[in-house]
Amino acid sequence: MEQGNKSMDAVSTGVAGLDPVLEHRLRLGACVLLSRADALGFSRLKAVLGATDGNLGAQMRKLEEEGYVKARKEFQDRKPVTWYSLTSQGRSALRAHLAAMEKLINGSEVG
Amino acid sequence: MATPEQLKEDLHYVIGAVERDRPQAMPRSIGLLWAVFMLGGLAGLDWDPRTAGLFLLVGGPLLYLVSMKLGMRSALAAGVRDREMGRRHMLHWASIFLGMGAITLIALANGLSHEVFGQLTGMVVGLVYFLAGVHFRISVFLWLGPLAMAGAALVGYFDRWGWTLLGVLMAAGVVAATMRRSPVEEHSQG
Lengths: 111, 190
Description:
The structure holds 2 protein chains of 2 kinds. By secondary structure, chain A is α+β, with helices and mostly antiparallel strands. Chain A is 63% helix and 17% strand. Chain A has a 3-stranded antiparallel sheet. In chain B, 82% of the residues lie in helices and 1% in strands. The longest helix of chain B is centred in the first third of the chain and has 29 residues, at 49-77.
């Protein structure tokens, strides 16, 4: 009974801590990849995440609007390249979201 | 609201993406430069050890600087900006020169022959290659490193062409390292 209550608490805490912006797997995946480098190009993200141009573009715009990523357009060998980097706000949000996911998953396994 | 099962699936997806985000293979430009350098320099040790030794001593650091530049450009072309990884590569490959510096001091203090100096340098290069395979996950170095070390140790047993044979094997190994490309690298260029 007590263990059941503990797992319910963990699930509740986990659910409360989830970030709706990062509940989309493409946005979550993009933020995790960006947390591992200074910046990644759009093509790199697309190749690693296995996303289409349109879908990835839309999700990255959402992350930009929320202030989680910063985009910078440059020219490389005369081709336009968009570089994305994770902001400090995005990094904090990612940390909190992953911690909440862990609580939720662990809580559901204990119960 | 996301269920734990959905979250687990999302995590698996993200783990898969992280796995696909593997470190870059050796850029072809760097591999080919070092292959030519090693082949020429090592084979030269069998023909004209003095000139070849100077070529390797002077050319090595120069090629290192060129490689760092090419490596940066290659990373940018692959859509990756990672100063920390760049710094690690710089320090890692520079350790060859630290090793050579130490061997030089030992050689001067103990009157080591040029042949032994060359063999010890080969051992250091092989060890640095092997550790590159371990830490940067460049799998070809996991066998090329030990090959270089074994070759450096055994070259003294050949009357002739020992260094040339080692140079051919090393050059072929480095070229092979540049040939393998992950699907991500093929698709993320540009």
